[in-house]
Amino acid sequence: MRKYIEYKNEISATDLYDGLVGYGLFAEKIPNFLTSVDFLAFTKTLTFPINKKSKDFIRYSSMRNINIPRPMAIPEPFAYSNQVNCLADNWAKLQKHFEDKTKNDSFKISRIHLRKLENKPELFEMNYKNFSKDGDPEQDIVIKSKYVALADISNCFPSVYSHSISWALVGKSLAKSKSTDKHEWFNQIDFNTRNLKHGETNGVLIGPHSSNLISEIILVTVDNELTQQGFKYIRKIDDYTCYVDTYEEADRFFLSLSEELKKYELALNGKKSKIIPLPLASVKNWVTKLNHFNFTNTYIVNFKEAIRVKELKGFIDFAIELMLDEDSDTSILNYAIKILSNKHLDTNAKDYYIKQIHHLVLLYPYLINLLEPKVFEPHKIDKSIIKRIAQDIYAYGLKKKIYEACSYAIYWAIKYDFDIEIGTIKQDSINSLDCIFLMISYLYDKKHNKKAYLKEYEDLSKILKKDDFDRYWLFIYETLPSTELTDNYKTMKKNGLTFIKPEFN
User: Fold this and answer.
1) Strand 147-152 and strand 274-277: pairing?
2) Which of 143, 382, 391, 497 is at a distance of 20 to 30 A from 86, taking alpha carbons?
3) Helices (H), 364-402
4) What's the CA gap between 149 and 274, in Å, rounded?
5) Cα three-residue angle 78-80-86, rounded to 5 degrees
6) In angstroms, rounded to a whole number, what is the distance separating the alpha carbons of residues 206 and 213?
7) Rounded-to-integer distance, Cα 24 and Cα 17, Å
């Protein structure tokens, strides 16, 4: 039987704390200039709980492939370390919970959860897949099925009710009877989770990796009830794929899932629930089509398949046609770019490709976070070209108030060492009051201008410090001297601790 072996055997309490605090504070969608490794070391010199007060958090918006921003968060670091320390202190009990809820499973239902990643210190990766360890249960459970039922939870993380964590861990009756006992371990997890969100009971933050563990506490309990009813499905966080023999059984799955979710104040997303007759391709049809696109007249360069401009044009046109056929599913472009990142492009093909990417990213800004790892780096794009793209993205972001786009443009300017010759970066970021935009703009100006030029940033930090410290803690901490800070922030600053990676500071 495939159980939660990662929870049971691979992750120790120390691994959990180090992985979540040192590598899970900042979401992957944020430009990659932040680190909490030094902060992790600092917290190990402190006595927990560090501060029991509830805290606010930094807001950050990231574009999705439906071109609607997803609200994300960076928690106040000491409140976050308190929460993770509480999870680590009670790790043996949480391991028992996961073991109890999954021990009778014949395959691993949850496909994306905290685990040891190969050659990485993180414990969570959104697109992680390792069938050699997890198995591929769909191949087995589809055999006797005639339909597949697809469902997901409506606004999963923002809808998590903090008290339902205790309900999942020890049962609703016991949790309610002990709800006022602050010493109960399950109430402490509830309390520290609420403290990341100003003490509010509704919602867990999207971004910090601890939220994925919190959601799993609840969702494996739902899984346990559904599997006892005989349903066979896999779950990717809050997305369900259930294989059934009849249409009526699919309806029964939706009803049962909805009923179980209601026990934890969660709801099924009715608009996305659908029943599809089998047979069905094992992956989305467009994935198969893209993977099997026939690149003719290819050759090998440095062990990579090399393609010329004619074949490249055909592939990009094919991907765009597929996207339009699939009701403008822009994740198709995402996948096509990933395929091309493993190809060698000759000079003409690279020139054509980068112009197409320049065009597409202005139409679909969610592609922005793909550019560095899947376009700039693998294809060794010249920084003069990156600069042109960055300047257009900056202007677009400013016009549309998509400050993630502005932040990425400045991030590239620092990383690839060029000037952003458009807009007034300092004033633009100050006007935005977007913490990440402010932070990366400050670092850019710190690199390119004299200290006196930074005074307006510091003046803003002093104003924000009075009433909005938690919502801008990163910007305030990095811009002000220790004399302007208090408590552990003051100590960290005196010791030279920073949340900025060395190459950006």
Assistant:
1) antiparallel
2) 497
3) 368-371, 383-400
4) 6
5) 105
6) 12
7) 10
Q: What is the pLDDT of residue 326?
A: 64
The residue to which tokens 């502005």 are assigned: 406
In the chain, helix, strand, coil percent, each to 5? 55, 10, 35
How many C-beta atoms surround the C-beta of residue 251 within 10 A? 15
Longest dimension (CA), the chain: 72
Residue pair 497/39 in contact by the 8 Å Cβ criterion? yes
CA–CA distances in Å: residue 457 to residues 10, 56, 137, 476, 484: 45, 21, 54, 9, 14
Please compute Rg for the chain using Cα positions: 24
Q: Which residue spans within 99-257 are E strands per DSSP?
A: 147-152, 232-236, 239-244
| Strands of 7-164, DSSP E | 57-63, 69-75, 147-152
* 421: its two tokens: 């010759």
Spacing of C-alpha 303 from chain mean position:
32
Cis peptide bond prior to 279, omega within 30° of 0: yes
Query: Which of 79, 70, 76 is CA-nearest to residue 50?
Result: 79
> CA 150, CA 272: separation in Å to the nearest integer?
8
Burial of 183 (0-12, 13-18, 19+ CB in 10 A): exposed
DSSP-based three-state secondary structure for 345: strand
pLDDT band at 6 (very low <50, low <70, confident <90, very high): low
Rounded CA-CA distance 427/453 in Å is: 11
Which residue type does 225 have? E
Contacts of 447 (CB under 8 A, 6+ apart): 414
Host H or E run for residue 274: strand 274-277
Q: Determine which helix (DSSP H) or strand (DSSP E) holds 300, and give its type and residue range.
A: strand 299-301
- For residue 151 the two structure tokens come to 């469902």
Task: Provide the pLDDT for residue 441.
Answer: 97
The C-alpha atoms of residue 338 and residue 327 are separated, in whole angstroms, by 21
* Structure letter (DSSP) for residue 124: -
Parallel, antiparallel, or unpaired: how do β-strands 304-307 and 344-345 relate?
Answer: parallel
How far apart CA 485 and CA 257 sit, in angstroms, is 49
pLDDT tens by residue, 143-202 = 889 999 999 999 999 999 999 999 999 999 999 999 999 999 999 999 999 999 999 999
Query: In this structure, what token pair is assigned to residue 437?
Result: 């935009």
| Three-class HEC string of 457-478 | HHHHHHHHHHHCCHHHHHHHHH
pTM equals 0.93
Query: Could you give the percent of the chain with pLDDT greater than 70?
Result: 95
The amino acid sitting at 408 is: Y
Question: In which residue are the tokens 């029964």 written?
Answer: 252
